[in-house]
Design a protein that fits this description.
- This protein is mainly alpha-helical.
- About 55% of the residues lie in helices and about 5% in strands.
- The chain has 6 helices and 2 strands.
- Strand 1 and strand 2 form a beta hairpin.
- The longest helix has 23 residues.
Length: about 150
């Protein structure tokens, strides 16, 4: 199963929250943390990383908070994960790099490398605009309809 760090997951949830924040005003960390049920302290560290990588900007003060540095369609899932977790490598393609690798291991290394590239490409193809649309659709499906 494909897994990412808690830091990566929190970063994705934060960027998704900011993507869905329609009015463009800054969104406070405590609001994101409450809505996503995550730790404020840890989220503050994640937001700092996202700011350093140029994905979010911040405004200080009582009405301050964070907002996206670019539009949601210009930010990819892969970019956010890379910003907080470093290079994306899902499968260890270094197996058998001890100099004695037979052809079977060389073939496996090539396949793992190809799989990593495919997964990275897919993660970079998913924009936060598309994730926002998915979330809106899910929320619409969950709203009970009362007809009289």
């Amino acid at each position: 199963m494909l897994q990412f760090s808690a830091k990566g997951e929190y970063a994705v949830l934060a960027i998704l929250s900011l993507s869905l924040h329609a009015d463009g005003s800054p969104l406070q960390v405590k609001t994101i943390a409450r809505n996503e049920e995550i730790s404020v302290r840890f989220l503050e560290q994640v937001m700092s990383l996202l700011k350093k990588k140029g994905l979010v900007e911040s405004v200080r003060g009582a009405h301050g908070g964070y907002f996206l540095a670019r539009s949601p369609e210009q930010i990819s899932l892969g970019e956010v994960l890379q910003a907080v977790d470093g290079p994306i490598s899902v499968i260890d393609s270094t197996v058998g790099e001890n100099g004695k690798a037979g052809t079977s291991r060389l073939v496996l290394r090539e396949v793992w490398s190809e799989m990593n590239e495919t997964i990275k490409a897919q993660l970079h193809a998913i924009s936060f605009e598309s994730l926002s649309e998915r979330k809106r659709e899910k929320e619409e499906q969950r709203v009970p309809m009362f007809h009289i």
